[in-house]
Amino acid sequence: MKDDVKSPRRYSSPFRLEQAAATRSQVLATALDLFTAQGYAATTVTQVARAAGVSVDTLYATVGRKSVILREVVESAISGTGQMVPAEERDYVIAVRAAIGAPAKIGIYADAVAAMSPRTAPVFAALRDAAQTDPDCAALGIEISTRRAANMLKFTADLRSTGAVRPELTDQFVADVVWATAGWEHYTQLVTGRGWTPAQFGDYLRETWNRLFLT
């Protein structure tokens, strides 16, 4: 009779989980600094690991290869929470849906874009550059752009439900204008290029969308 062979018991503790989360956060913060300072192509995994104070093996085990690190950096910047959060679960999306009236919904979203753009614009610029040489990053850029476009249609449908959107405007037109004007390129042109503040950018979005879309 053969003895039962027991597989090694996996052990985890709150301390180890906290340590892994802290390591992941440090790696992502370091990668963000390097990607935005010197570019994706010029940044190596070894550089990220060294600057984060971890081994390359630990970096791979905690986050993954370089394109995965960039994906995590992008998703963390979008959510502002250190991890990916589905659009419908983000605080500002919940607030937009709960708001009464199209002007209130527009105001909440314009303020949210102004608040998140300082952290997302540099990351999206790094992603754009990375997409030139890395197929995985190019696919990520397309994925996020497509996802944003779908979310803009949901925002438009929410505005339309208030009865305040001009009837001659199609949902696709409204969504496309929001997609373009709220984009990181537009933010960079006005804030970095023309010296606007993020708050001014938010006011501009609010005024533009109210004038263009509402009766």
From TrEMBL:
Pfam families: TetR_N. Residues 44-63 bind DNA. InterPro entries: Homeodomain-like_sf, HTH-type_TetR-like_transc_reg, HTH_TetR. It comes from the Bacteria. SUPFAM superfamilies: Homeodomain-like. One of its GO terms (molecular function) is transcription cis-regulatory region binding. PROSITE patterns: HTH_TETR_2. Keywords: DNA-binding, Transcription, Transcription regulation. Residues 21-81 form the HTH tetR-type domain. This is Transcriptional regulator, TetR family.
